[in-house]
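Data availability (excerpt). The following record was deposited with the supplementary files.
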Amino acid sequence: MLRDKNLVPLSRQHQHALALCVRIERAGAIDGSTLSEWQAEIAQQFEAEIKVHFAAEEQIVFPAAVEFSELGPLVEELLTDHKWLRASFAKAEAREMSAEEMRAFARKLSEHIRKEERQLFERMQELVRPEEFIRLGQELDRTLEGATQICAIPSPKE
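Predicted structure:
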């Protein structure tokens, strides 16, 4: 299903986060020499974009979704994911994430994003009235103003 234009800013940010997940998965063995760089990038992406993204979902999208009882359990699951992901971002910021934990983080973040895109957003587009989507879109635009659009790549050591 084509994404409603009012959700496109969130979907665009999802693409940035998915790009990070794919790069982590394709990186092969992440050893001690690059682990800190990867954690720095994860922390940077959280600070620049994902922290504001989570807030927008939790303050605007999720409350609109739970107006429909069938979406309540999914929203609870997504909130639980946010809690786990925030803890992982904090671990990366503190440079306490192992390579194995980083791969688990990438898998979890990817699964979370796909759940939002394929389940929550799809179903909301079927249930939410167009005028309500316009209001949501305006609120999202205001909230996401502070997010920096990034997709940084760690530079290889020379």
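Summary of structural features: The chain has one domain: 8-144.
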